[in-house]
Amino acid sequence: MRYEHLFPDLPDDARCWVYVADRPLTEAQRTDLLGQLRAFFTDWTSHGARVRGDAVLRDDRILLLAADVPGGDLSGCGIDKSVHAIEHAAQEHDFSWLSPLQVVWRDGDGQLQHGARSTFRALARDGGVDGMTPVIDLSVDTVGALRNGQFEQPAHQSWHGRVFRLAHPTA
To answer: What span, in angstroms and rounded, lies between the C-alpha atoms of 131 and 165?
Structure first.
């Protein structure tokens, strides 16, 4: 999946956060969630400075949120405001965001799966996932990293390969 064209109005050093819903969202939930976030973005500030924010949904459950404060930095309070907006939206639509400690990957059919690190480790040990399994890096924190392919890549190219000993198949 390609991400280089996301957030065209934001610079590469804009902050980025990844949220994954615990289940696929309906079309109505996705539309409402993005509508709520767009309304939030119109008033989002950080220490009195306007925050330029944007969000996209992928695969019916991955929320990518990006933010930039032109000529400034996004404060902890500004980040907290976005977290509260995102958590409120999830509560309103009766779903939860996964813990960032979960592992998210695509199965052989290209469907998103998630589980604890112990679950992914067992799959790696038993051959259920390998170095070519596409994984989602929930720790991506800039739009540039997202655009440069660090968000979704084969396990052997990410931290998943090192942690779970998933080598390139020809290695």
So the answer is: 8
CB atoms within 10 A of CB 135: 24
Topology, domain 15-92: Alpha-Beta Plaits (3.30.70)
The amino acid present at 54, given as its one-letter code, is: D
Which pTM was predicted? Answer: 0.93
Domain with CATH 3.30.70 in the chain: 15-92
3-class SS string, 2-20: CCCCCCCCCCCCCEEEEEE
As a whole number of angstroms, the distance between CA 152 and CA 137 comes to 6
Q: Determine how many CB atoms are found less than 10 A away from the CB of residue 17.
A: 18
For 94, the 3-state DSSP assignment is coil
Dump pLDDT digits (tens) for 60-109: 999 999 999 998 889 999 999 999 999 999 999 999 999 999 999 999 99
What's the CA gap between 115 and 126, in Å, rounded? 15
